[in-house]
Amino acid sequence: MKKSILTGAGLLLILTGCTNITTEQQSVEQTMESGEMQHEENMDMNHGDMEGMEEHMDHDNIPPLQASKGTQELVIPPLLEKQKESDFDYEVVAQEGTTQFFDGSPTNTYGYNGNLLGPTLQLKEGETVKVKVRNELNEPTTFHWHGLEVPGTEDGGPSDVIQPGESKIVTLKADQPAATLWYHPHPHKSTAEQVFKGLAGMLYVEETDEEAPALPHTYGVDDIPLIFQDRLFDENKQLDYKNLMNSDGTIGDVSLVNGTINPKLTVTKPLMRFRILNGANARNYTFRLSNGATFTQIASDGGLLHEPVEMDEITLSPSERAEILIDFSAMESDEPIAITDEEGNALLPFDLDIDGGTEEMESISWTDDTTFLKEEEKSLPVSKKIELFGMMDKVTINGKKFDPERIDLRQKKGVSEVWEVYNKPDEMGGMIHPFHIHGTQFKIILRDGREPAPNEQGLKDSVLIEPGERVRLLVTFPEEGIYMYHCHILEHEDNGMMGQVEVY
Ligand SMILES: [Cu+2]
Q1: Which of 137, 196, 203, 222 has the highest CB neighbour count under 10 A?
Q2: How far is the CA of 19 from the centre of ligand 1 (A)?
Q3: How is the chain split into domains, by residue range?
Q4: Range 7-21 average pLDDT
């Protein structure tokens, strides 16, 4: 069978490619000191004296998303084309534009190389490219490559500001397994607004190993990016962030997929691969299929899972990704099928128009002889403790708010350490914080003392942490530099729920 695939050395390499483990007791102890909790001091929250509590979103009462009417074919972001005869390979321009979401009322939006969102940038595993980034906005921005393990100088964090009208060339080396990553702005205190207005794009690291599983990979045909976002529009159909924003995370009732309102997707192949990004500022999504069918998750944030996992739903917090396969061959074309949210609202209805094809779900499998985590990785001591706490503008990490002048943690390049991240509940129970670390793809060792679910046994750069939950991560930085770690509720990030780790 053409598509039959089994593992081989390629995948094994991917899954074991995780650096040398050295405990380095001395540096660990130093780190413990510098990362020490200070939560009881200045920033600890007393709800009695919190201002603006009434604005705090009741997180059990999230405004529901409107179901898609299925009136527009899903927009597939174009592939970013390589420059010819130029001293850089790609150009990404942040610019203003307008988008026609509603009849007769154009909405002012931001986009990369266009009006809304951005083109998909494809890098091959191991490839090095030069990307010219240019800021045509009327405000400063940065270009952050989320999930890409590049040196701190290329990472596009808040210190790497590109002023209006300016540009620079960054060098991106995709020295990591094939994965679905993304890019977005990261300017301090305006990330949420710039993403809300439309800045985000997909960044793929593409498989080059011929031994690797032969997954559907025809872009826009059987390999589809899906950027899920919710948006709130004002009465003039504008994304007036300053008036619409909620400091605890701006949540809207309008569902966009790849920037398309009321989308549907015409499916032409029996076996489809979807690369799902939760690109929302703050909303968590749980995705299901409307007909109750299962699907197969094949990848998490940083690449293929240890093995494919059959799922009937998947939850993604902001910035998390999942690649899934849906087998449409057994589904009736007259039965309505959609990707829904947890309320059953159809976010992406499918029209089946399958032209045949030979792909079979059964042929897509792989097994791996190695364990997801080695014994010596599991038994490493915790060397960095992170405590997430607060809500609205009172959010902190280890009792502190972001200070660009302060290095919070230090870690040696190539040395694995265990970060324990605790989401400290408050009197109201607390809320989910998606925790993201730049410059690394980590593994989840334990969730509250338990092994991670099979669909989290893969590389991750963002992790959903429930209130009261304690998550242990095996973190290794392959490059040097200063990297952010932060809550990926973008308003929390802008409110200072962010720290810096220096990798040396
Ligand atoms: Cu948060």
Answers
A1: 196
A2: 30
A3: 72-206
A4: 35
